[in-house]
Write a structure and sequence with these properties.
Elements: E1 4-7, H1 17-31, E2 36-41, H2 53-63, E3 73-74, H3 79-91, E4 95-98, E5 127-130, E6 137-142, E7 146-151, E8 158-161, H4 169-179, E9 184-188, H5 195-205, E10 213-217, E11 219-221, H6 242-252, H7 266-276, E12 287-289, H8 290-295
Parallel strand pairs: 1-2, 2-3, 9-10, 11-12
Antiparallel strand pairs: 4-5, 5-8, 6-7
Bound molecules: zinc ion.
């Protein structure tokens, strides 16, 4: 089976150090196994997007030498596929409408199932939830974080279509990963607790599909311990320093490097890095400080 990986940024802002580390790790893991690396723009939520951000991300990836294979996928253009998937789940009685408001669910850590037997207030705007298999235990060997064992009963029924009619993340991601033939998912550990839903959804949507292989990377955090993001004002990357940025990211990922690479073009550095890539060297932690990216080389 050929390796097919992917990078799936949300265009809420430019590429920053955190998203660079994720893009680089998934690119290297794919390339080191002669795999494909696909790119998907997760533009499901127009109000949260910044005009031009998707194009800026693509431009930054090109400047960094992180080229992708095949056509770009924009989730905003996949409504018909998501509708079909919702229909399939409805036909299998694995999706149900939910009228609950945020206020009614305050204090519950998981969805308490109020609408499992029908919406409590059918005249309200309705979201759709996926009825998880409460008996399912999601188990996988995470290539970075080690063996995982999660009970779907502890995850609860998840929204797959929002009451404002926007498609929800879990359904879109799972269907796209299935339809793009993704085999390996390398992404930030902030998505670890989404994985049980995605495993359950994949089984419901395409029971015959092989299981995804997962690797959850530590996320890059600022001094306040917050994941770098547009909301936390993470600065955009200066891709005129592409080689430096890639080199620092490799050090943060605890990969073997050669200082001679700093004199190279990004494409050459990446080629060498792919030859030396060892996923098992990535630190098995949940967070890495942004500072480590800024100070990890002395040649500044
Ligand atoms: Zn409800």
């Amino acid at each position: 089976m050929q390796y097919v990986g992917r990078f799936a940024p949300t265009p809420s802002g430019s590429l920053h150090l955190g998203s660079l580390v994720t893009a680089l790790a998934s690119w290297l893991d794919a390339r080191s196994q002669q795999g494909k690396w696909l790119l998907r723009i997760e533009d499901l939520d127009p109000p949260r997007e910044e005009p031009g951000a998707a194009d800026q991300i693509l431009y930054s990836l090109e400047q960094l030498g992180l080229f992708w294979d095949g056509p770009l996928v924009y989730q905003s253009q996949r409504s018909a596929a998501y509708q079909q998937a919702l229909q399939l789940l409805q036909d299998k009685q694995l999706a149900y409408p939910c009228s609950c408001t945020r206020k009614e669910l305050a204090g519950f850590s998981i969805y308490p199932g109020f609408c499992r037997q029908g919406p409590r207030y059918p005249n309200r705007p309705l979201a759709w939830r996926f009825a998880v298999d409460n008996n399912l235990k999601a188990r996988w060997q995470d290539a970075i974080q080690g063996p995982q064992y999660w009970s779907l009963a502890d995850a609860g029924d998840v929204v797959i279509r929002r009451k404002d009619q926007l498609w929800a993340y879990q359904l879109a991601v799972t269907l796209d990963d299935l339809e793009q033939g993704i085999t390996h998912i390398v992404r930030g550990i902030d998505l670890l607790d989404s994985t049980p839903w995605q495993i359950n959804l994949a089984q419901a949507l395409q029971p015959e599909a092989p299981a995804f292989q997962y690797a959850h990377l530590p996320v890059i955090v600022n001094k306040q311990g917050q994941k770098l993001s547009k909301q936390n004002l993470a600065p955009a990357l200066d891709t005129t320093q592409a080689t430096q940025l890639l080199y620092r990211s490799l050090l943060v990922l605890q990969q073997r490097v050669d200082p001679a690479w700093l004199q190279e073009k990004p494409a050459t550095l990446l080629e060498e890095a792919a030859k030396n890539w060892q996923l098992e060297r990535v630190p098995k932690v949940t967070q890495l400080p942004e500072e480590s990216l800024k100070t990890c080389i002395s040649t500044d």
